[in-house]
Design goal:
It has no helix or strand. The chain is mostly loops. The protein is rod-shaped, with a radius of gyration of 46 Å.
Length: 99
């Protein structure tokens, strides 16, 4: 007699519930790398010499010599320091619980 009929079963009655969600903020980011540094030290000793040597002889050969002597050039020490790395980022704020 009920072969072609069916009964639909309804789910249990649902109720509203509160859920508390709490989360921890993420870690801060890493600090930035320090800046590049380069140092250069150079020394130059440049001499422009224009000299003449005159030789005069009354009896035989004559020899004239000319010499230009320069001092040393020394470069000082060169130092450079790169920039400091950037500060790390602040951590996340997280999620505060509530109802």
């Amino acid at each position: 007699m009920f072969e072609d009929q069916y009964v639909e079963l309804l789910p249990a009655r649902t109720t509203m519930q509160t859920v508390t969600v709490v989360g921890v903020g993420g870690a801060g980011g890493n600090g930035g790398a320090g800046g590049f540094a380069a140092a250069l030290s150079a020394a130059a000793n440049v001499v422009f010499a224009n000299q003449q040597a005159t030789a005069i002889s009354g009896f035989g050969d004559a020899t004239a010599a000319n010499a230009a002597v320069t001092g040393d050039a020394t470069a000082g020490n060169a130092t450079a320091t790169g920039g400091e790395g950037g500060a790390g980022g602040a951590g996340g704020a997280g999620i505060a619980g509530g109802e």
